[in-house]
Design goal:
There is one protein chain. This protein has 362 residues and is α/β, with parallel strands linked by helices. The protein has 2 domains: 109 residues, Aspartate Aminotransferase, domain 1 (Alpha-Beta Complex); 238 residues, Type I PLP-dependent aspartate aminotransferase-like (Major domain) (Aspartate Aminotransferase, domain 2). It is built from 13 helices and 14 strands. It starts with 7 loop residues before the first strand and ends with a helix. The structure holds pyridoxal-5'-phosphate.
Length: 362
C-alpha cells in the first residue's frame, strides 16, 4: 500500500491514486495467452466502449500516451499531417511527426487560445492532407478545444482522418467517438482515469484500420493491424501490464457504477470550486471563457505572486502538491487538477489549504 511520505497530488497528472486501485492491482499474475487473460480483457471492453462512445474494440497499449500518439502518425500518415498546435502536447506532436520523417504542417495558435474550426477548414482546403491531430484538452494551458466543431470540419474532407488525444478529458467530459466520426481516440490512464502510469487505451475507426493496412513503415510495437488481429481474440500483441489491467478493470467498473453523466457533473462541479477560489482572490483564468478545461484550471498569475514559493509552502504546511505552470508559462501561470477521484470534501480540503497559504503571498 502507498506510504504517505509524498504529498497528495493536485497536479494535472499523474494524479492521486485511490487505495482501492492499488488493492485491485495486487492480484495473482497470469499468462496472457489463455482463457484467464481473455476473460479479463473482454470483461473491460463493454465499459471502455461506453466511455469512448464507440462500437469498435478498445485496444490496450503498454506504453504512455506518446507511444500511441507517435504510432498514429506512423500508421496513418501517407501524404501529409496537419497538427493543430495550442500548447506543449499539441505542439510536440508536430515535432514527433517530423521525427517520423512524415510531411507535416501545423496551425499554431498562442498558448492559452483554442483551435478555430474555421482555420482548420481553410487549411485543409489547401489540399494534400490525409491526417489531422488534435489535443482535446491541452493540459499545459487548460484549454479545452471544440471537439465537435473541429470533428465536423474534418468530416467535410473525405480521406482525412482525425486523431484525438483525450489524455486529460476522457471519462470526465463526453467523448463520442462514433457519433463525431473520430478516427483515433487515445488516452493514457494516469490523468483523467487516475491509474498509475504505463497504459494507454485507444480505439480506431474502420477507415483508420484500412489506411493503416496500406501504410508502410508502421513498425511492430504500435502497429494498429497487430492490435486489431489480437483484439478479435481478446488479446494484445505483446505482453501487457497485467497489474495495470486489473486496476483498469476495477476503475471501469467503478466508472460504470458512478455513471458517466454523474461523473461529468462531478468534474464540472469540482472545477467550479477552483474557479470560485481564483476569482475570490483576484486571480484570472489563462484560458478564455467557453474553452476552459473541466479537469484542471490554469490560473494566470496576474498578481505576480512568488509561484514556486507558494507551491513549496503548500507542500510543507499541507502536504499538497499543485503545479507551477508548464514549460514557457512556468511562473506566469499555475495549475490545479480536479480530475480522477476528487470529491467536494477533498477539493474543500485543498481550498482551505490554498486559502491558508495564499494570504502570505498576495
Ligand atoms: C500528459 C499528456 C500527454 C503525455 O502523456 P505521456 O504519458 O507522457 O506519454 C499527452 N497529451 C496530453 C494532453 C497530456 O496531458
Amino acid at each position: 500500500m502507498p506510504n504517505n511520505q509524498l504529498p497528495k497530488l493536485f497536479i494535472p497528472g499523474p494524479v492521486d491514486i485511490a487505495p482501492e486501485t492499488y488493492e485491485a492491482m495486487c492480484q495473482s499474475m497470469m499468462g496472457h495467452r489463455g482463457g484467464d487473460f481473455e476473460a479479463l480483457y473482454s470483461s473491460i471492453q463493454p465499459g471502455l466502449k461506453k466511455i469512448l462512445g464507440t462500437d469498435r474494440p478498445v485496444y490496450l497499449s503498454t506504453s504512455s500516451a506518446w507511444g500511441v500518439m507517435e504510432g498514429a502518425i506512423r500508421n496513418l500518415v501517407q501524404k501529409k499531417v496537419l497538427n493543430l498546435c495550442c500548447g506543449a502536447f499539441s505542439d510536440k506532436w508536430f515535432g514527433v511527426a517530423q521525427s517520423c520523417d512524415k510531411e507535416a504542417e501545423k496551425i499554431q495558435v498562442e498558448w492559452g487560445q483554442p483551435i478555430d474550426p474555421a482555420a482548420v477548414r481553410a487549411k485543409l482546403a489547401e489540399g494534400g492532407f490525409d491526417t489531422v491531430t488534435l489535443v482535446h484538452n491541452e493540459t499545459s494551458t487548460g484549454v479545452m478545444n471544440d471537439l465537435a466543431g473541429i470533428a465536423a470540419v474534418v468530416k467535410e474532407f473525405p480521406g482525412v482522418l482525425l486523431v484525438v488525444d483525450t489524455v486529460s478529458s476522457l471519462s470526465a467530459v463526453p467523448v463520442e467517438m462514433d457519433d463525431l466520426g473520430i478516427d483515433v481516440v487515445l488516452a493514457g490512464v494516469q490523468k483523467a482515469f487516475a491509474l498509475p502510469p504505463g497504459l494507454t487505451i485507444f480505439a480506431i475507426s474502420e477507415a483508420a484500420l484500412e489506411r493503416a493496412a496500406g501504410t508502410s513503415g508502421r513498425g511492430y510495437y504500435f502497429d494498429f493491424i497487430e492490435f486489431e488481429k489480437n483484439a478479435v481474440k481478446n488479446n494484445t500483441p505483446s505482453t501487457p501490464a497485467v497489474s495495470l489491467l486489473y486496476a483498469l478493470k476495477h476503475k471501469v467498473d467503478s466508472i460504470m457504477e458512478e455513471g458517466l453523466d454523474a461523473r461529468f457533473a462531478r468534474h464540472a462541479q469540482l472545477n467550479g470550486m477552483i474557479h470560485a477560489w481564483l476569482t475570490k482572490h483576484g486571480f484570472e483564468h489563462f484560458a478564455p471563457a467557453g474553452f476552459r478545461s473541466k479537469t484542471l484550471t490554469t490560473i494566470a498569475n496576474n498578481q505576480n505572486i512568488d509561484v514556486p514559493g507558494f507551491i513549496k509552502a503548500l507542500r510543507q504546511k499541507h502536504h499538497i502538491l499543485i503545479n507551477g505552470g508548464y514549460g514557457k508559462i512556468k511562473g506566469t501561470t499555475f495549475r490545479i487538477s480536479n480530475m480522477g477521484n476528487e470529491s467536494v470534501e477533498s477539493m474543500q480540503e485543498l481550498i482551505d489549504a490554498l486559502d491558508d497559504v495564499v494570504v502570505d503571498f498576495l
